[in-house]
Amino acid sequence: HVQLVESGGGSVQTGGSLRLSCTYSSKSACMGWFRQAPEKEREAVAGYTSSGNTYYADSVKGRFAVSQDNSKNTLYLQMNSLEPEDTAMYYCASDQPDLYGLCPHEYTYWGQGTQVTVS
Predict the structure, then answer these.
(1) N or C: at which end does the chain have fewer Cβ atoms within 10 angstroms?
(2) Following DSSP, what letter does each residue of 24-65 receive, concatenated?
(3) Per-residue pLDDT of the chain in tens (119 residues, 90 and over written 9)
(4) How far, in Å, CA of 84 to CA of 94, rounded?
């Protein structure tokens, strides 16, 4: 069982930056960040594949950067050049790869979420 705790959300003006943190109790092969705005579909933002590669949603490429510090059991999401469209609840999540070695679309373990508001 994996536990995740998020922090770093808040309110920021357009063009500003935030860094989200997610501490985890155990490292999983699949780890990433998701976001969901009210009445919107949950969206994968950025994360790590089971092979260690990073991925980013097209909407955040060049602006967001995912990283991790294994010594601190922490996953980060650096968010730069924030736009109002980035406003959402942000969640970190983790899971094991499936039988094909792929990270699932729906993750098993989730943090509580942290609100990001850009105006």
Answers:
(1) N
(2) ESS--SEEEEEEE-TTS--EEEEEE-TTS-EEE-TTTTTTEE
(3) 899 999 999 999 999 999 999 999 988 889 999 999 999 999 999 999 888 899 999 999 999 999 999 899 999 999 999 999 999 999 999 999 888 888 888 899 999 999 999 99
(4) 27
